[in-house]
Amino acid sequence: MSKYYFPYNGGIENTCQQLAEGFPEDQTAVVCFNESKKNSIDIINGITVYRAGSLVNIARQSISLSLSKMLKKAIKEFQPNIIHLHWCNPFGGAILLNTIPKDVKLVIHWHSDVVNQKMIYPFVKPIETALLRRADMVLTTSPLYIDGSKPLKPFKEKVKVLQSAIDISKFQLTDADKREIERIRVKYGNKPIIFFIGRHVPYKGIESLIEAEKYIKSDCVVLVAGKGPLTEVLKEKCKSARVHFLGRVSDEELKWLNAAATVFAFPSITKQEAFGLALVEGMYSKSAPVCFTIPGSGVNWVSIKDQTGLEVENGNVVAYAKAIDELLTDKKLCIQLAENARKRVEDYFTVPVMLSLLKGYYKGLFE
């Protein structure tokens, strides 16, 4: 059970699809919201997807009058042994609490605490607590998030780590890709590229990156991909000729930019950044990352300080610039960190690794 599902593109939705399609030997269905007001049932890559029409969206939460009906229909038709809920989805969670049969195992995939919606959290908390009590297992994306999450503390004995993952086949480079990567490097004067990709929202820390650029001594360019509410404000504030706003980029362009970059800038500043799939993609592409220390976030478990990348005090833009300069001037260090980053992704953050872990966890529910 997820907020949305393919073709909707989002980190949680991508993970949901990877898990749903990862067990072809089992019957799997997905219940989610539709982006329109209509109910629909379709089959995507063998997965039956029940979409409940959305009436309205409040604080990034869809409200649907037909979700209960669609969930009951899916349960009746599929007779599940396990229901896997991707959190945070309070409305869906409330419907599920009143619908799930007593003999069905509940797994809550805890992608994030409720961080910013402080006004509505008092209404969400009872649903959250009831779900955690009912859950047979809770999955979080990193061990650091377990220790930093207040809601999870009373239920730590139920919590296991299931790290998010990427499909590395999407980042394999053909000869044509390598020509495009070289074209990008030439376009920017063969200068070292500092690359950022993500939504332009406060917790992503793009303002810190723009400010840090002023203190970078090395000759380089900073490429900022993505869009969001802060885009125009950032463009107004940034007067540097070496910062280039690229807007939204395609999957192909993202692959080329990750590979062309020397440094992957990941300046997120709050635990709203619970994991960092974009960070994993940059690491796999051998772009050495620079991160801030974020208490309670999995970011600093994805990239290990001084092993797979550099990490500095949260919000310290001068230190952030210094770390970038260190990578640009010490090529041996930069290459070593980039190689280590690629190896860490191969060892921990690929889809087969994630699926193998989850298969074992599911099996353990019935032993």
Compute the number of strand runs: 15
Share of helix among residues?
25-40%
What would you say the CATH architecture of the largest domain is? 3-Layer(aba) Sandwich
The succession of helices and strands, N to C, reads HEEEEEHEHEHEHEHEHEHEHEHEHEHHH
Number of helices: 14
* Residue-averaged pLDDT: 95
Radius of gyration: 21 Å
CATH class of the largest domain: Alpha Beta
Query: Structural class, from secondary structure content?
Result: alpha/beta
Beta-strand percentage range: 15-25%
Going across the biggest sheet, name each strand in turn: 12-11-10-13-14-15
Please tell me what the overall shape is.
globular
N-end to C-end Cα span:
24 Å
By CATH, the topology of the largest domain is Rossmann fold
Mind describing the biggest β-sheet?
6 strands, parallel
Structurally, how many domains make up the residues? 2
Question: Which stretches are low in confidence, meaning pLDDT under 50 for 5 or more residues running?
Answer: none
In the CATH hierarchy, what is the superfamily of the largest domain?
Glycogen Phosphorylase B
Can you give a write-up of this model?
- The chain contains 14 helices and 15 strands.
- The protein is α/β, with parallel strands linked by helices and 367 residues long.
- The protein has 2 domains: 169 residues, Glycogen Phosphorylase B (Rossmann fold), CATH 3.40.50.2000; 181 residues, Glycogen Phosphorylase B (Rossmann fold).
- Strand 7, helix 4 and strand 8 form a beta-alpha-beta unit.
- Helix 3 packs across helix 4 and helix 6 crosses helix 9.
